[in-house]
Amino acid sequence: MPQIPVLHYQAVLDAVSPVGAIDATRQAFLRHHAGEWFMPPKVYLENPPFGDFRAMPALGGGLAVLKWVTSFPGNHGTAHPTVTGVVCVSDARTGETLLILDARAVTALRTGAAAAVASAALTAPGGGVGIIGCGVHGTWAARCLHAAGFGPGVCSDPDPDATHRLAEELSWSVGPLVEARDQAVVCCVTPGRQPVIDTADLRPGQHFNMLGADGPGKAEATVDAVLACHLFCDEWEQASHGGELAGACAAGRLDRDGVIDLGAVLAGEQGGRTGPDDITMFDSTGLAIQDLGIAHAALAAWRDGRVEAQTIDL
After folding, report:
1. Is the peptide bond before 73 cis (omega within 30 degrees of 0)?
2. Which one, out of 2, 8, 174, 247, has a CA that is 20 to 30 A from the CA of 238?
3. Which residues belong to the active site?
4. Model-level pTM greater than 0.85?
5. pLDDT for 243-266, tens place per residue?
6. Calpha distance 9→32 (Å, rounded)
């Protein structure tokens, strides 16, 4: 019976630093754009009224991964996490299972890293960071932006404990929503049940990372606010059906020609910001190729002896 190494939540975070996650995520976008890494559409298994399960496979660089992950918003404030699950990492040549990763940690790392990658590609120099939503993923967006040299920042959340913890960790400040969304780089990481950004909140030169609308019916910005920005996304098909762009697409006010893939910007094939007053918005819906990038980094750390794994017998 084979022994399978398993990296629990903290072990994944020990294996892949924020800087490492940023590099892995940037490479994932580039390789997917180049056609070297592949992924089919994300599968949603709705489970009302509790939440949903998601199956996310990807293939590239000699590995295949499958992330089985949940989004159970009703768990907030209980003993159960909103996001839980596993990432199974397999050898693409033999099919052998190589490693199992905690999906919460992988998701947190690649979500935060995507914000940093997009910000580096799309922002104007200078200015502060606004974090709207200081839960797990808002915290990791802030950590990755901080690791990439962005800041100082303003942290805003209805939960004062979460806000103060994050602000204290990064030596940033606590502020109201209006102050956070007035910063040069704004990360929205809310449940997406109601918009927190409208057209009146936009300022010339700002960049918005929209991280919370990760499924159909969710939105953190009004349709008019979305359409007032220069738009970018992680992957068009996913973003247009279940991301921040979906509302504008459903209303018939946005099509493929109005949105640029981040991978094309990173590859230098399409431009990003057009000038200092350009308002840019990146719709991050979370891709399986990003999970694949983190899996590559975690597997390398385990093989190099930089992190210890538990083992299970199958």
Report:
1. no
2. 8
3. 67
4. yes
5. 999 999 999 999 999 999 999 999
6. 26
